[in-house]
Amino acid sequence: SEPHEKKQEGRFGRWLERGFDWMQRGYARTLGWSLLHPRLILAVLIATIGLNVYLYIIVPKGFFPQQDTGRLVGGIQADQSTSFQAMKVKFSEMMKIVQANPAVDSVVGFTGGRQTNSGFMFVSLKSKSERKVSADQVIQQLRGPLS
């Protein structure tokens, strides 16, 4: 069998090849320079690590930024052996505690669903002008009485 004939490259192939050659020359040039200046490269590495640590500490963590929308969502999950009736009583007590907070405008909740030992509540806070605390502060105020 005869060896494959080398096909002539098209314009796009030549353009890509020139791009790869340019990148390879640039890489070789910067690698050579880096190997000639190891102390500077080490200093840049240490500075980069330090900057990353600093940014990790000061940048807020979380997928979404915290915003006070005036709405809270809460859930409760009791032991699996808790009956629907017992859960309903416990959930009603929780809703009264939440409603008693002066920053809360209204509370709506439900128990049951897929599990009889769970419940969810949706809390609407008063407008920001009517309350003196943020949504996060309301959550902190409710943690103690609800635990």
Automatic annotation (TrEMBL):
The source's domain of life comes to Bacteria
User: TM segments?
Assistant: 40-59
Q: Which InterPro entries match?
A: Acrflvin-R
Q: Which UniProt keywords apply?
A: Membrane, Transmembrane, Transmembrane helix
Q: Got a GO cellular component term for this one?
A: plasma membrane
Recorded GO molecular functions are: xenobiotic transmembrane transporter activity
What is this protein's record name? Nodulation protein
Which PANTHER family does the entry link to?
Answer: MULTIDRUG RESISTANCE PROTEIN MDTC (PTHR32063:SF34), PTHR32063
Is the keyword Transmembrane helix assigned to this protein? yes
Q: Which SUPFAM superfamilies match?
A: Multidrug efflux transporter AcrB pore domain, PN1, PN2, PC1 and PC2 subdomains (SSF82693)
Species source reads Rhizobium leguminosarum
Q: Cite a single Pfam family from the UniProt record.
A: ACR_tran
Q: Which Gene3D superfamilies match?
A: Multidrug efflux transporter AcrB pore domain, Multidrug efflux transporter AcrB transmembrane domain
